[in-house]
Amino acid sequence: MSKKVLVISTSFRNGSNSDILADEFIKGAIDAGNSVEKINLKDKTIAFCKGCLACQHTKKCVINDDAVKIFETIKDVDVVVWATPVYYYNMSGQMKTLIDRLNPLFVSDYKFKDVYLIATAAEADEAAINGTITGLMGWIECLDKTNLKDVIKAVGVCAAKEVYNIESYMKKVYNMGYNI
């Protein structure tokens, strides 16, 4: 059965390893017959959440920027995929900012159940990505219908485009996309 997939790439760096892996995931998902949309946060304007909680009553954010459009897209997909570089053992700031702005999902009739994470880190130890998983789980646990389906921990990649040289990561993320 074909799924509607949204991939959110959170890196601002051109040629970023997490973005390259996101594209490889997309190839796998498309090859398996799914429809995929990709959003690059580097092209978006997303303000910080004000914490006003108006969205809990209106089901929409009071701030009118690109996060509003992303919210409208994300609530109608079957699968959400986050791709992020890891900074100081956590997700990118732009990813966290968007997660905060997706607070209206808590009271909305969203469709997606499965969430995937593709994380890259310069550190060679996979434990460097655990803080990112913990942060993402905070969001997932607040959304009753969702679960973290799978995680790619691509460690030991620092320079732009370095992940191209690590065939095992490219293959693993392609297969993850193919098997969603």
What report would you give on this structure?
The chain is an alpha/beta fold and 180 residues long. It has one domain (4-178): Flavodoxin domain (Rossmann fold, 3-Layer(aba) Sandwich), CATH 3.40.50. Helices cover 34% and strands 20% of the residues. The protein is built from six helices and five strands, in the order βαβααβαβαβα. The chain has helices at residues 17-31, 55-58, 66-74, 93-101, 130-142, 167-178, and strands spanning 4-9, 35-40, 79-85, 114-121, 147-155. A five-stranded parallel beta sheet has the order 2-1-3-4-5, sandwiched between helices. β1, α1 and β2 (35-40) form a beta-alpha-beta unit. α1 (17-31) packs across α6 (167-178). The termini are close together. The model has no long low-confidence stretch (mean pLDDT 96).
